[in-house]
Amino acid sequence: MIIIVCPGQGSQTPGFLAPWLELPGAREHLTALSDAAGVDLVAHGTTSDEDTIKDTAVAQPLLVGAGLLAVRALGGTSRVGALAGHSVGEITAAAAAGVLAEDDAMRLVALRGREMAQASAATPTGMSAVVGGDPTEVLAAIESHGLTPANVNAAGQVVAAGELDALAALAAEPPTRARVIPLKVAGAFHTSFMQPAVDALASAAGDLSPADAAVPLVSNRDGEVVTDGREVLDRIVAQVSNPVRWDLCSDRFAALGVTAIIELPPAGTLVGLAKRALKGVELLAVKGPEDLDAARTLIEEHSA
User: Fold this and answer.
1) From the candidates 86, 190, 241, 302, which is the catalytic residue?
2) pLDDT of residue 100 exceeding 90
3) Could you give the residue range(s) of every CATH 3.30.70.250 domain in the chain?
4) What are φ and ψ of residue 127, in 5° steps?
């Protein structure tokens, strides 16, 4: 069984989409996605600098647009066993599974990015990766400082989120054998600080008519397999203020019998996690168009 995974915010790099626009029809496709989002994805994917594409309101639609560009170049997802997305990547996965039309996905992610940026500006908050240490001790230390384990990516990799003073206190007294690394993000994503963004997204999502997923989706809330379109959309909305449990997604991949994983661009982070958590699974990070043939071959070899 082969699974396609879609990365989250922070994986983008300046100019990463430039090679993709050499593909026939790609520039026109990305321009259409830009129009839907109200964000110039062509410029941000090719010439914008690092600080510009770190902006939450830019980064989120850019990531989803990149994923949809790659899905079309791959020829779709009909032969894939399941899809999953990390954080904002869940919108990419939902569109790739047919739950959302591309235009609706781009409008939704643009709103998500704007509202999360606005919520981040309301209170000085942030996120720090806690790498290493005993998982139980790490979670206890995070919670003892009044922080939230916003991303539980795998054993040995948890992201704490909350007020900056609390993050500084955690860094000053890290758990045994653990390092605390501040992340360059605008605020405490996937915590209660994002509730205003949830409210705005819930209102917008209520106007959409999602279809049931043509390909099963593994939810990053709890690793559950979801196909009901409305439930997928409800989970995408609620996920903004709730932790990402990528560790449970990895457990579900194993339970489903995954034999190969493809990560959509900008790829690298999620196959890196899979390399440690899912031994023996064939992995491919689709970083550029030169990886498309290998991805198609992998789909052919591992599809049901």
Assistant:
1) 190
2) yes
3) 122-182
4) -140, 145
The pLDDT of residue 304 is: 61
Per the CATH hierarchy, to which homologous superfamily does domain 122-182 belong?
A: Malonyl-CoA ACP transacylase, ACP-binding (3.30.70.250)
- CA 143 to CA 160: how far, in whole Å? 9
What are the backbone dihedrals phi and psi of residue 266, each rounded to the nearest 5 degrees, phi first? -80, 105
CATH class of 2-121+191-299: alpha beta
Sign of CA dihedral 20, 24, 28, 29: negative
Q: Is 190 a catalytic residue?
A: yes
pLDDT at 303: 86
For residue 106 the two structure tokens come to 């781009």
Q: Dump pLDDT digits (tens) for 252-268.
A: 999 999 999 999 999 99
Question: Could you report the per-residue pLDDT of 195-244, keeping only the tens digit for each?
Answer: 999 999 999 999 999 999 999 999 999 999 999 999 999 999 999 999 99
Active site (annotated) includes residue 87: yes
pLDDT at 185 over 90: no
Q: How do residues 266-283 score in pLDDT, each as one tens digit?
A: 999 999 999 988 999 999
Average of per-residue pLDDT across 181-190: 90
Q: What is the CA radius of gyration of the chain?
A: 18
Q: From its phi and psi, is residue 5 left (phi > 0), alpha (psi between -120 and 50) or beta?
A: beta
Contacts 24+ apart (CB under 8 A), 236-240: 236/90, 236/91, 236/94, 236/108, 236/201, 236/205, 237/198, 237/201, 237/202, 237/205, 238/198, 239/87, 239/90, 239/190, 240/112, 240/116, 240/189, 240/190, 240/194, 240/197, 240/198, 240/201
Catalytic residue among 11, 34, 48, 87, which? 87
Q: Which residue, chain included where needed, has tokens 């990886």?
A: 291
Give Cα 211 distance to the centre of its chain.
21
